[in-house]
Amino acid sequence: MARFGLLPVCAIVLSVLAQLSAQANDDNTFAVFRQKSYYFSDSFKLNWFKAMEYCRKRGMFLLSVRNTQEREAVIEYLGSSGYTSTRKTVMFWTSANDLGEEGEFYWSTTGEHVTYSNWSPSEPNNAKVDDCTNEDCAVLEYWADRVAGYNYTLDDRSCMREYHFICETLPE
């Protein structure tokens, strides 16, 4: 008899755990993104690897832009800093890269596959930079003088190039 009494309890526990898991994976909860804090390097540039290291040493992670809400939060943050109002071109490293497998981009900070399609037109294109360097890391870019298709979109670049970068805290 005791075994049958545990079955409904186990079913309830599993149901609650499934609901909590679904809520934890909901990337559309805007309030979560407002709890993040950001840091961006407006005075110096680093290559992708050094930018990752810089963020981690400060207890932060290189930026991931996994959906429209996160993109809007970053745009709002950069706008409030005044940085973008004084520049025609903005490029910041993100954690997106295809270093593990060409053409398969992942956010290195979360391990998630890049599914938010916010690439600049004709990107990612893995352009060859020199005889042995391809584009494997992604920047978030803005070009004031170009069409709207380049407004805060992703572009793959050589990981060894130096750009500004954005660090973020992940929500708890």
From TrEMBL:
<dbReference type="InterPro" id="IPR001304">
    <property type="entry name" value="C-type_lectin-like"/>
</dbReference>
<dbReference type="InterPro" id="IPR016187">
    <property type="entry name" value="CTDL_fold"/>
</dbReference>
<feature type="signal peptide">
    <location>
        <begin position="1"/>
        <end position="22"/>
    </location>
</feature>
<feature type="domain" description="C-type lectin">
    <location>
        <begin position="33"/>
        <end position="168"/>
    </location>
</feature>
<keyword id="KW-0430">Lectin</keyword>
<protein>
    <submittedName>
        <fullName>C-type lectin, mannose-binding protein</fullName>
    </submittedName>
</protein>
<dbReference type="Pfam" id="PF00059">
    <property type="entry name" value="Lectin_C"/>
</dbReference>
<dbReference type="GO" id="GO:0030246">
    <property type="term" value="F:carbohydrate binding"/>
</dbReference>
<dbReference type="InterPro" id="IPR016186">
    <property type="entry name" value="C-type_lectin-like/link_sf"/>
</dbReference>
<keyword id="KW-0732">Signal</keyword>
<dbReference type="InterPro" id="IPR050111">
    <property type="entry name" value="C-type_lectin/snaclec_domain"/>
</dbReference>
